[in-house]
Amino acid sequence: MYLNNFTGSLSPSIGGATSLKLLTFDGRPYIPPSGFVPAPIPSTFCQLTKLRTLKLTTVGFTGKIPPCFCKLVQLTHLHLYESNLQGEVPSCIGETVQNLESLQLTSNKLTGPIPATLGRLKKLQTLYLGQNRFTGSIPPEIGNLLSLQNLNLGSNSLTGSIPAWLGRLSELQSLDLSNNLFTRVPPELGKLVKLQYLSLSTNKLQGNLPSEIGNCGSGIANDWSALYIDVSNNRL
């Protein structure tokens, strides 16, 4: 259900299609459907236990991510970005829902700390939590996501030093920590030899930029894959 002019809100009756493996309701980027009436995500969607992919994006919901999404244990892709969702991310994402390869919750109003349980998503390749209202530090459990290729935590209120353990995520190709309150760049980021995109802009970074950062991207095989680094608007 992509680029249409549906009116009203999502029908709870969709939850009766219990054989569904893919459900997508996607508006135009940053433009929710004009006739869509904001409402909570129907709890009946939690009956779709065979879903592998659930994309409810650019819609304009009200309320939280339903805790009963814990039942969707076969999910590999969960995309709920640009949809006005609030509250904390259910901790069961990582406890019961463990097969995710892509989790995208960008551009909502999510609050609280980043759940440490996300560190159990050992198959995760893409984690986008940017443009929310997360606080605190990055939980060290995220360092267990050794398959992670894309990590976006930009535009939140995350604090402290950028963790040195990020250097363990050797598959990272894209890292966005911009628009937060980080204070220090660890030299261990230089271990990210597959990195092609690094944005640390608009933080409170102080001191010298470690020379090891020059090693980022050194393992990229293709000469045309340029490394992008942005450390603007800091106190370096």
TrEMBL record:
Residue ranges of every copy of the Disease resistance R13L4/SHOC-2-like LRR domain listed in the record: 68-178
Main location: membrane
Listed GO biological process terms: defense response; post-embryonic development; response to other organism
Listed GO CC annotations: membrane
The entry's keywords: Glycoprotein, Leucine-rich repeat, Membrane, Repeat, Signal, Transmembrane, Transmembrane helix
Origin: domain of life: Eukaryota
Membrane topology designation: Single-pass membrane protein
Transcription among keywords: no
PANTHER family assigned to the protein according to its UniProt record, in alphabetical order: SOMATIC EMBRYOGENESIS RECEPTOR KINASE 1
Protein name: Disease resistance R13L4/SHOC-2-like LRR domain-containing protein
Protein's organism: Riccia fluitans
